[in-house]
Amino acid sequence: MTSSARSAYLYAAARTPFGRFGGALADTRPDDLAAVALKGVLAKAPGLDPARVGDVMWGNANGAGEDNRNVGRMAVLLAGLPTSVPATTVNRLCGSSLDAAIMASRTIESGDADVVVAGGVESMTRAPWVLPKPSRAYPAGNVTAVSTTLGWRLVNERMPAEWTVSLGEANEALGERFGISRERQDAFAARSHTRAEAAWTDGFYDDLVVLVPGVDLARDESIRPGTTVDTLAGLKPSFRPDGTITAGNASPLNDGASALLLATEDADLGCAPLARIAGRGVFALDPQDFGFAPVEAADAALARAGIGWGDVSAVELNEAFAVQSLACVDAWGIDPEIVNTHGGAIALGHPLGASGARVLGTLAHRLQESGGRWGVAAICIGVGQALAVVLENAT
């Protein structure tokens, strides 16, 4: 029998550079991106026979194109792992790969497996257009192709209209509710770019990012060096004529993959664990308020870890929009300087299914870098959800 006190540890993290929509990774299939990240994270465990991997749990938000046949299993096969290694694909939209990591940690804690890989992938560039099937054969009218890149599509008419507003409109309403100005949002976005550029220049991401073979992309493609509040102030609002959200203070559309290696404390992988999974939280509210959902998810994760915000030295919050990130930081009452110190999704990019694993892997490396004990990773999720994980430094 396994001990009920058994813990799950994060040993390694790896991700591809995140490409711009239509950018350097546009010609790379999502299953190939996933295989690159999977091989990259396993390469960090020289003592691990891949046949020991008990399961692979992989996040993917769209799954309507080349990623449609259980992309986690496709990645296992394309990466050259033994066919005996199983895999599943998880869809919790933007939180998919963090959900995969949470599931992996529970699998280890329960004793169902000793070693699990979690991760996620998204090619927003290659997400296809889809057509609804007709209710009867040979319709005479026109049919509209619907993009699966982002947001609601083929909406159920029974859904209340306020639930199905665009992601941008939902966050315009959130900013209005909390009085978060355009100036604060632009300052937050400019900081994201400045910190991301500095982190790359200082080498922070060198050990986290694995290159995609045959692609000339060494860094995250959406970072805009030299971005300032003044340059962002010149951009037009994207969702309301008099709105505050622009292309500059929201995350872009991206392609990329991320992977995490989780195992028991005594797994003997040829590398030391980075952090222990200490707490997990999930929360849901009205769909249009999704940007604010990380507040309660993180509070729940902290409670389960037995600590409070005063113990936390590092926060990785996925920057879907500057306005929702600011609303969460304000609600937590924490020092903004501990949030996304190496840049966030506004600069690095937000390939939906890959972002949760990115924030968790980045958090573990931040704790290693700083020596801090506790950190929180959190992500908002469309249709009114959020996830959070608390890490305890293992060194």
Describe the structure.
The chain has helices spanning 30-42, 71-78, 96-110, 167-178, 182-202, 229-233, 294-305, 322-332, 345-348, 355-370; strands spanning 9-15, 19-20, 55-59, 87-90, 115-123, 129-130, 146-147, 254-263, 275-284, 312-317, 374-381, 385-393. The chain has 395 residues and is of the alpha+beta class. It has a domain at 9-126 and 251-393: 3-Layer(aba) Sandwich (Peroxisomal Thiolase, Chain A, domain 1), CATH 3.40.47. Strands 1, 2, 3, 4, 5, 8, 9, 10, 11 and 12 form a ten-stranded mixed sheet that branches. A two-stranded antiparallel ribbon has the order 6-7. Strand 3, helix 2 and strand 4 form a beta-alpha-beta unit. Helix 1 (30-42) packs across helix 2 (71-78) and helix 3 (96-110) packs across helix 10 (355-370). The longest helix is centred in the middle third of the chain and has 21 residues, at 182-202. The model has no long low-confidence stretch (mean pLDDT 97).
